[in-house]
Automatic annotation (TrEMBL):
Localization of this protein: Cytoplasm
The protein, known as: Uncharacterized protein
UniProt cross-references to InterPro entries, sorted A to Z: CRA_dom (IPR013144), CTLH/CRA (IPR024964), CTLH_C (IPR006595), Fyv10_fam (IPR045098), Rmd5_dRing (IPR037683), ZF_RING_GID (IPR044063), Znf-RING_euk (IPR027370), Znf_RING (IPR001841)
All residue ranges annotated as the CTLH domain in the record: 149-206
Zn finger intervals (RING-Gid-type): 328-372
Biological source species: Trapa natans (Water chestnut)
Amino acid sequence: MELSTIKDGFDRVAKKQKLSNSKSQDVIDQVKNEIGGALVKIQSLNSETVPLDQKSILSDLKNTLNGSTPERMLEGLQKELNANIIKYMKLLEKIFVPDLSRAHRDVEFDFHTVNKILADHLYRQGWFEIGDSLVNEAGEPQAAALRSQFLEFHQILEALKEKNIYPALKWIIANREKLTNSGLNLELKLRKVQFMETLQNGTQAEALNYARAHLAPLALFNLEEIQKLMACLLWQGRFESSPYSDLKDPTQWAKITEELNRQFCSLMGQPYSSPLTMAVSAGFEALPTLLKLANVMAAKKPEWQAMMHLPVPVDLGNEFQFHSIFVCPVSRDQGSEENPPMLLPCGHAICNQSIMKLSKSNSPENFKCPYCKADVSVTQCRQLHF
């Protein structure tokens, strides 16, 4: 709807601009013709009366132009066009730059938690000086609890940018018992890219010595992978035409960095993506719906401020869903602590409030399942936990 409104407004401005240009060109052509006609008359004058006749012709030209008021006509056309452009700009501002405060609700924040989230985000991004300033100014040293871990992480990342795998390997070895299987496989991935770098930039002997020193201890559970690497020794200098050319994929370093990021955050008990980034992104996605809802409920501000659940769905996409949710197929309400999902003995599930309504409309204790019409007793329903 908004896109069609924007397109219609743009089409009106474009049409007006085209019409204004056409009319402006007509005015300019009219002035040009008047001046051209006066020049022709001056050039055809008899030499004996030139000064007098020239003055007469120029006087007539001046009167003609003053009578047609070309400047005023051009100014009027431009003002009319500007009015349409300003109107369109206001339309864009209304749609794309709305008053965000209308969607605001009075929420009590725990500022200690907010400061910690901000500090963690700054340290996660590697902005340690800004994070330290925030912690010091807020007077909350506990908000810097993760600083040292993120500092170590960024030192590892900087080393990987230089294709130096040893800080990452040191971290993996130190945390071997705590890492998942994918974390342990990260050591093999680091050794593989280092082997390929050695083979590409060094000699076969250097690559073979590296394999004996660092890949042989990993052969017990990764024999097939290491056999492929050993076969690469035979293709040195013509690796692009080998069956193993994918091992030299330049994106391998980026994939390893991403995997290391995931493992590091998991070991710290932190989400892979910054909570602050996710909250801002989710708010950005939900903002249009919230603004529309705020407009509809403008006359019911107290109700809007006290509302626990939104009366309209906000689809944020799968990337913003971190736990299972249940929407009652009868009432379309999302399950909550006050209105939990209930499992019926027939295997179907609806919310508790729907059960209460269905049982009241039938007998005090029994009702029919809205799906399979099986007889259900309220006492047989069990709460579901996700």
